[in-house]
Model the fold of this input.
Amino acid sequence: MAEYLPEITNDSVCPVDAKEELLNECESIWQKMEECQSKLKVQGGKTLPKSHTRLSLLITRVKALQAEYNQWQKRTPEIISNNPEVLLALGKEELQKTKNDLEMVLSTVQSKNKQLEEDLKREQQWQEEQEQVVDALNRIEEEMKTQTEQLSRKRALQQLQNKMSKVKSYKEGLLNALGEFLGEHFPIPEKGGSTKKKKSFEKPAVELITLHEILEILIHKLMSTPHDPYVTINDSFWPPYIELLLRYGIALRHPEDPNRMRLEAFHM
Done:
């Protein structure tokens, strides 16, 4: 805006005659204003009749306002001076004031725009930082989820391993207790009383196995091949032990082959 306004310098000074003429006109206008003011004072100083004082005052004010209104309607703008040099000087002065005001407005607007640009940059930077924080938090959340899943799997696997270890320990304890019980109450057939009747020089054709070993064979067969749990009875199986297992329902014969038997599925 400032570059389109002409530069107005203080070198343009109106002549002395124009100044004097302007001063004279101002003094004349001032005298007229003083005369009007004195007339108003004289009219305002008159005492109104006591009766209807307020109404008369209002009517007077209405008339005065109406007269002033009519005067303003009839009045045309008066030119201070017809001297072109005076008008030129006044125009330059007004233009200079307008230019200064516009330059001030332009400076204010530019300063405001600069401040707004700085605020915008700060807001954009803050937004980028917040987006980075959100991205970092999302990554941390994903990592935590993955770690939690891994920890859950590890914990579940560890618990399962602990349970398996406890089951194995319990199984070994049961097998040891069973072995001790069977070894104490059901010894090897050669050491039993029935073998004492035999002659000392007679030896069995096949070495007999203990009841504990028979049960281990039946259990292993049932657990390893549940679809075919039957075991063939051979000469190493002492018949009294076989009859004992069958009589008390611990083992069952094959329905078609009496030389085969299986352990009763107590876990089913």
